[in-house]
Amino acid sequence: MLSVLNVSQNYYIRGGSDRYYFSVAELLEARGHQVIPFTANHPKNQPTDWSAYFPDAVNFDSPTPADIIRFLYSRPAAEALQRLLSDHRPDIAHLHIYYGQLTSSILAPLRRAKIPVVQTLHEYKIVCPVYTLLSNGQICQACEGHNFWQVAARRCNQGSLARSVLSAAESYVSTLLGAVDKVDHFIAVSDFLRNKVIELGVPAHKVTTVHNFTDLSGISPCGEVGEYFLYFGRLERLKGIFTLLKAMQSVRTPLLIVGDGKARAEVEEYVQQHDLKHVRILGHQREQALTDLIRGAICTISPSEWYETFGLTLIESFAHGRPVIASRIGGMTEVVCDGTDGFLIEPGNVEALQDRLQWMADHRDQAVKMGQAGRRKVEMQFSAEAHYHRLMDVYSKVM
């Protein structure tokens, strides 16, 4: 059995990539593999016996000059990993979103130790310094060919020249440190993501698609008619949350919004200003509470307006037998089959979203059947067992 070094920024769940980080660890451990976590120390971290090896986190809220330097190159992270590798010898390193806290400084110790490295791509960081292929709210590929200076020229990071210069500098530094060259193989969570990073400069032979998964053990699909619509995920403009709120002005079925994020205050203000009394903002919900909310929904909604790399919430909804209304963009088109297990709409199209929401509200029995089709799809395509075998195939490529 393998010993796998599992590397990420966080040892707590903040978003979908963090959920995957913990899920893949559970998947590997359940099949007898040793999983060694390596992340930054943080007060929100879950307890682990490995935390003594974790370097201190960079303070992004009130950064000092030292924090800015450590955003570009973290000597503490490199030294902490070297200490771990001196005490333990993993067979392979599996990286996730590691750069903000750990930086590409950790690649050299792995290379010196001759440990094979794979990385799951959860977003577009290796080809886009702001991770999203968005510039000021618009789809952008100006950095193609590692022309990261475009980020500063276009002020892609929150419209700030200083932030954008720092993002560009970080991408140049991480590329020089081997963010592409010192990773033996990349795992893309969708074909769309794979094709996009190849288009923008990553060698095709280094990227394999392995779709995300959800563990179905202990989950029985809900066959009851739902009572409300549900959005769960980050509250950010790129997620299409305001398109959804505009659509809800003419749809009277209740909407529950679960999650937190940069746009939460704006979302709350919009709901209040437009007197959307049938829209409730519940904030972050723990696992069982979220499960109950999904199972009580008519359908869930993912109206993203950026190149979603996959859409983990889609298969989580399907697992519980709930259909999805999603945008026809990015990797989500590889998950939802329009008219079979949900609907696909054009990103930002308020009228199309209104139409599909109203259809779901008026045809709740058919929505249940669509959710059942989604459950069957997860069982066949996105199960834990299928994911494990595909992951092992990638590991075998580099070992």
Tell me about this structure:
By secondary structure, the chain is of the alpha/beta class. The chain is built from 15 helices and 14 strands. The strands form three sheets. A six-stranded parallel beta sheet has the order 2-1-3-4-7-8. Strand 5 (134-135) and strand 6 form a beta hairpin. Helix 9 packs across helix 13 (350-362) and helix 12 packs across helix 14. The model has no long low-confidence stretch (mean pLDDT 95).
Which class best fits the helix and strand makeup? alpha/beta
Number of helices, where a helix is a run of at least 4 consecutive DSSP H or I residues: 15
Biggest sheet details: 6 strands, parallel
Strand segment count: 14
CATH fold field value of the largest domain: Rossmann fold
CATH domain class name of the largest domain: Alpha Beta
- C-alpha-based Rg, rounded: 21 Å
Please tell me what the overall shape is.
globular
Stretches where pLDDT is under 50 for at least 5 consecutive residues are: none
Query: How many angstroms does the end-to-end distance come to?
Result: 13 Å
User: Beta-strand percentage?
Assistant: 5-15%
What is the second-level CATH architecture of the largest domain?
3-Layer(aba) Sandwich
What is the CATH superfamily of the largest domain? Glycogen Phosphorylase B
* Residue share in helix: 25-40%
Mean pLDDT equals 95
Strand order of the largest sheet: 2-1-3-4-7-8
Order of helices and strands: EHEHHEHHEEEHHEHEEHEHEHEHEEHHH
Could you say how many structural domains there are in total? Answer: 2
